[in-house]
Prior knowledge:
Number of helices: 9
Largest sheet: 6 strands, antiparallel
Distance between the termini: 34 Å
Number of strands: 16
Shape: globular
Order of helices and strands: EEHEEEHEHEEHEHEHEEEHHEHEE
Radius of gyration: 20 Å
Strand content: 15-25%
Amino acid sequence: MQTDDAPLAWLATPADRSxxxxxxxxxxxxxxxxxxxxxxxxxxxxxxxxADITRLDSIGIPTYQAIRPLSRTLAVSQGKGMxxxxxxxxxxxxxxxxxxxxQPALPALTATPRKLRTQLGYEVGxxxxxAPSLLHDGLPLDWVAARSLVDGAxxxxxxxxxxxxxxxxxxWNPPVFFESxxxxxxxxxxxxxALHALCEVIERDAMTAAVTGGGEMGVRVDPxxxxxxxxxxxxTLIERADVTLEVRLVPSPTGLPCFLSWxxxxxxxxxxxxxxxxxxxxxxxxxxxxxxxxxxxxxxxGARDDLRDDFGQVDAGRLRSARSGxxxxxxxxxxxxxxxxxxxxxxxxxxxxxxAAAFSHPPLLVDLTREEIGVPVVKVVAPGxxxxxxxx
Length: 392
């Protein structure tokens, strides 16, 4: 077991020195404790209803929606899990964390990148840009406090990299950075949230490279070859529903397992995609597969604010190929043996080292936690990582 988490001593709590291993996820607390925290917060941020939408589809992977009518971004948040309890919790926590990123952020200061160049510890140009972007060294930007996950060093990041709202701006708002929820996460502790957030950043970096690369998106793999009872259960549910599942292992410069999956059927031929990354190949795989099923339910329910109408259909030939084409590769022969960790802090320290080496910059943490809400929420910003709208 690796426990080298000294660089995160400034962030760790006693709960981060261990790990609760749940089906398809690792947490700092058991679900009951998390649910008690989440329900208190949900009432404060305006969640009015939590709905079980699992049975709107034939697959049966537990999926819930949390409704927050006064949202400044999406009124409907979704959550999935291996149990209804975990799915319901996921939906509520997503709604709570999204509320945090919508709130106005008081800038620590306003300054140009040129003025702060020696203080930041990273290149502002390495942050994901908007398209087009008006970023230049002399552009005044609002900044908020952040800390390096490598050594805890204090720094600053632009407010527009952190905050997200779909409200119309009434002032001058030049396009500079790509604004999204990428790297936003909540948890029982800040370290649990940061681990989830950084894995998401790594996952979307890998998927962006795959989507924009123009070639094959990774290697087609057999999800059952991992030998995971949790993954096997998901596969069984999908097969029983007569839905086609394809899974691909997508390369990441971090070396962490990143999976892409899609599901489609003759009755509902629109391909729905899911992604997943984690130190544990099992968790990465089950996240990707369950997210694809969750995306399918989002369109079946029709309740989300961000549904698209240009996703197309999978032709019958591709469905047949995915079901009975050439044998898919064995996952175990393609991924590293997972490094065991006996704590969430140790797991995060390992992922931070991988990310810092891959992106050539330290990943940064912005603490969005509000005491009056009572849920740890963070935004992880990783200069040098890639992200595009297609993978959100």
